[in-house]
């Protein structure tokens, strides 16, 4: 009972029961979950900024810094492509949309779905590049735009590194502030069970468990495909690195439960960075790969994109050849980027993909809008697993990962958990 994940798990179960048995009361819990997530988001941008600046200043050479960044982006792109392909294969094998026979002409966009679709239609594939540069340095922090904060942090870190001894006092302040902000995060995380309870109660109370059965086959395919990707694909990658995936996931169990309860991988970004450093992944690698991975390494979102797009084609009886699917995959490599932390990001990226292709009716997103909240949990969980593995891969690729130290740390953490459980 002294473990945070136990309380989070109990809170999730309590939230499900409240939302199921008393839907109105569950919906009323929305402010509880939203407040907790907002409290975490309040700390994300300063932690990302301070961690990246500290990491850059701690790198022995600019050349090494450039190598880490390039290797991270290469891995992110390869991971995204692999996730998209896995999703396409799964949706073609199980074909849950066949037999639905939805009439595209009768589908009308409304509410939030219409808003997300409009954003997707108006967006351009290159906007994630222009969106890197903020119009105001303060605005990037105020808006919680992690990608822009990364841009500012990289510039600040490079400048401090370049001025040498002149910047050392500032670097010391940055390191001290980092310690203080993580202590604040520790205090906020004590409320994680309450936040998970409120968010889960709202989800079940608002959308109802019955929503899960209406499109159950699609949900099952998505969850099954994501599980396959994590266990088989990421498991194989971890094996090559020399780390046991199951032990890594067990070490991060609290983070996974918090993500499950809040449907947001952002809620654990600072904790994830801290815990990866604690097991031996160099801070500079973690500081660069994890925050950027939240915008460029979205494995769960990529699987969702390919599954959802082809499902809509199947459900509306829209012919979509293998060549058409490959072309759609190329578009998704661009539309899936830079969407981390944006409300409705999955739908915006999906609408942007369908609008760009022009072959599958964009209004078809209404077919799956009702279950998106349940799909978002799986997207967030898979994204978290992917970014956890990414930092290990980049560190090993760079030759700075002490695999033996990581293994010992994971075994030690597992033993500590076992001792607490037996006590």
Automatic annotation (TrEMBL):
Mind telling me which residue stretches traverse the membrane in this protein? 42-62, 74-95, 146-163, 184-209, 221-246, 303-334, 346-369
Q: Which Pfam families match?
A: SDF (PF00375)
Q: Which UniProt keywords apply?
A: Membrane, Symport, Transmembrane, Transmembrane helix, Transport
Gene3D superfamilies for the chain: Sodium:dicarboxylate symporter
Q: Where found, per UniProt?
A: Membrane
According to UniProt, the name of this protein is: C4-dicarboxylate transporter DctA
The membrane topology noted for this protein in its Swiss-Prot or TrEMBL record is: Multi-pass membrane protein
Record-linked NCBIfam families:
PRK01663.1
